Amino acid sequence: MGFKIVAGRAKTGKSTYIYDEINKEISNGSKNNLLLVVPEQMTYQSEYEVIDRISSSGIMSLEVLSFKRLGYKVFEEVGGLKVQEINRYGKIMLLKKIFEENKDKLKLFKKASRQEGFLREFDSLISELKQNMVSEEFLEQILKHKVTENDNHLLNSKLEDILTIYSEINKHTKDRFFDEEDKINLFISAVAKSKFVRNSKIWIDGFESFNGQRLKLIKELVKYAVSVTVTLNIDPACINSLQSIDDWEAFKTVHETFKSLTDEDVSFEIEALNEHAFAEEIKIVEKSMFSLKDEKFSILTDKVQLRSSLNPYTETEKTALEIICLVRDQGYRWKDIGVAVGDMDTYSINVKKVFTQFEIPFFLDMKRDIMGNPLTKFILSLFDMFIYNFKHDSVFEFLKTGFSVLNYDEVSKLENFALQYGIEGEKWFRAFRFKCDGIEYFNSLREKFTSGMKEAKTQFKKLDNAMDITLFLFDFLDKFNVQEKIERQVNVFKKSNLYELSSENAQVWNYVVEILEQIILTGGNMEINPSDYRKMIEAGFREVKISIIPPTLDKVTVGETDKISVKSYKALFILGANEGKLDSRSSESGLLLNDEREILAASGMKAINNADYYMYREKHMLYKLFSSAGERLYLSYAMGTSEGKSLQPSMYTERLKSLFTGIKEKSDLSDTWELDNVSSVGGTVDTLVSKLRDFSESGEITDVWKNVYAWYEENDENTINIIKLGLLYENRAENINKENLEKIYQMPVTMSVSRLESFAACPFKFFMENIIKPQPRIVQKVEFYDIGNIYHQAVERFTNEIISSNIDIDTMDEEMARKISCVCTENILAEGEMDYIALDANERNKYMKEKIKRLVNRAADTIIKQLQRGSFRPKFTELSIGDKDGNIFVEPVEIKIDNDLSIYFQGRIDRVDTFEKEQKTYVNIIDYKSSYKDIDLSDAVQGLQLQLLVYMSAIMKNGEKLFASKPEIGGAYYFLIDDPLVDGDVVLESTPQDLIFNKLSLKGYVLEDSEIITGMDNEIGDKKASDIIPVTFNKDGSTSKSSKTLTDKEFKALLSKTDSVAKDIAGKILAGNIGINPYRKESGDKVPCSFCDFRGVCQFDPSSDKNSYRKIKKLKKDEIMLEIMKEGEPDEI
Question: Domain 374-546 - what CATH class?
Answer without folding.
Answer: mainly alpha
